[in-house]
Write a structure and sequence with these properties.
Among the domains are: 17-115, Immunoglobulin-like; 157-290, Immunoglobulin-like; 452-731, Spore Coat Polysaccharide Biosynthesis Protein SpsA, Chain A, CATH 3.90.550.10. Helix content is 28%, strand content 31%. Helix 2 packs antiparallel against helix 3, helix 4 runs parallel beside helix 6 and helix 8 (426-447) packs across helix 17 (703-735). The protein is an alpha+beta fold and 736 residues long. The relative contact order is 0.06.
Length: 736
Amino acid sequence: MLETLGKYAEADFESPQIYQLTSGVCLLVWDPPHQVNAAPRLEEQSSSSFGSIASVRLARLDGRSRIVWAFSLKEKSRLDLKLTAGAIGSEARLAVDVAQSIPMADAFAITSGLSQAACAVFVTTFLNAWSGMFRLSRSRRFVDFARELLRSVNDAPPVVEFVASVGRVHILETLLNSDSTELQTAVLIGDFGIQRLDSSTCNVSYNNGRNRLFLGSVELHQPPQNGFLVLAGAWGLAIRRIAVENAGRSLSTWWGTNSRKLPEVRDYLIAEIGKRSEETEAAVLNMQANEPLAARRHGSLAESTSFCSIETALSGEAGVLVGGWMRDPGKAYRGIDILSGTHAPIPLELMTFDGVLPETQGGYAIKRFVAFAPVGSSLRHNLQPRFELRLVSGERASLVPPPQPSDICEVRAKALSVATPRHVSDEVLSGCLSHILSEIQERFRHSVGAPKEITFGTVLTNPTVSIVIPLYKVFEFIKAQLAAFSTDSWLAENAEIVFVLDSPQQVTHVEDLLAGFHLLYGLPLRLVVMERNGGYALACNAGAEAARGRYLAMINSDVVPIEAGWLEQLCASLMMDEQIGAVGGKLLYADNAIQHAGLKFIQDDKGRWFNHHYYKGFPRQFPEASSSREVPGVTGACMVLAKEDFETVGGFTNDYIVGDYEDSDLCLKLRKLNRKICYIGDAELYHFERVSIRKNDDYTGGVASQYNRWLHQSRWEDDIVALMGAAALREEGSRA
């Protein structure tokens, strides 16, 4: 029902009355002498015809009925109308020339004598059905009549306040009666016309059930002056007058002073406002940073008491990665649910493993747990998703994690620390970590902006080969590397040197270093500076994009040639056989033991495939390591390939974390082009292995490497099995 009813105007519709609603639409109102239960009919008896026509039956306070038709005409002319109300003898006629002046529609007259329910029906029909049917939502006359219609049924409506704005997104709030539960429509009326509110609204119990708190949002250039909000449901109709005095407040300013900080309202704002744009996403993240929820755990730490804490709750498009720990000696816990907006609580499927608290926390044995909640994007921007702990007693206790990071690098580090390396099984990877890490890595890649470039000296305009060297925090080998390059006349004449700095905060230091080395060795140098740390694949791809050479030589910053001619030999191998997709040389440790003589794949007793290097640890002059041959792959520490092939396969795949397995992935992609991968035993270089990667905090003692291994195997297992089978046959043939 209506919350209040406006004043009635007197009107007589015993005989049909016609009104002009807009220039192309008319209203016809008639009160038959009895209650109408059948569908009414309106017929044109002359040669004119209707464009569109609709009707609604409304209950009068005296038990009779009022029928209102809306119709458009294909042309304005004289009408001869026959009205039928369903009963025998219940008909009327009206002749009118609509080309002549007819009175404008009178909302107060049309609603006079109607019941509250009938007023609600007419308002919802008029705003929701007829506005679209007759395409009138932007008509000024239609809007003016709609305002009058609302005033006629409620001449003193309560206020709906526009409480905050984020760009074009405006948030509005009002209180409703306690029975106003399920909403069917929400319509905003203003000078702009008529517009439905965005489909997702918030309507929750408030004030101990005495009211409902409603929040909605709408995208407009500015909040409407002299407007109304109309809410409708099975319970009836609620009309609100718009107040815009506080519409200019930011989301954080409003929320900081808001006295109605219900958890459901907070969840609504984060989920529904945050997804609109980058601006609204930033606004809800800022709101959460300024007003974090207090972390809530359950129980107390003691020898015989139960305790539960959620420490990690990272939200994404597919769901939430959850991590924490519990101690439950009394078997008081039944499970944990995640709360996701208006949906019912969703039980978590916990993967648990044993752990022990530090001595400072009692040294108790605990169960660590990790889970993935597949709730979709409903919690995507929520830094503190809420949970409930189900107790054996039937009670439920609230759990709230500490605020989670919003910076994508911190998010990735948090995800990689949710479980210890020894507990990161393939089940944990596939069931939990992979869902969120793939998305985090995608978001991370998009967070890296365009690089900039600095040059030292006059660079070659048309080099044969571009040496691409990624740099990350470790620069101690640059001098030795450039010294070796400077003694190689072929390299100096045919190669350009492109460093890619993946720790841009050190650009001043690196710029000074390279400027000095350019003067010292006389080699032109190019420095590509990443906008932020992006990892091995992004850095190498940026260097390859900047490269001008026909070939690319991917060289690590800790690789130093032993003697001149290595690059010429590797490039010559590609020139002589176009079926070769990539070549690599022999890499040695500082003690002259072999580090790499080609890359292969080995399998452990659990069926997991790992990258491994042929003859790793063998003496430098080991005969089999000195012969050139086809191999499954070569390391990215020293890999030479055609730039065209590199671009054809999309460069290094950049969904691996930090730097691992990208090189074997690239080799496998090149094989999809029917290219061979070859090892050249005469090209020798020192490799001071993995000095840079140990400086990266995100490598986290093996979790990232395990994820990369799992991802690589998930993508390439069938190819690896076939490739290693063929390699085994080749090796048997060579020994025979």
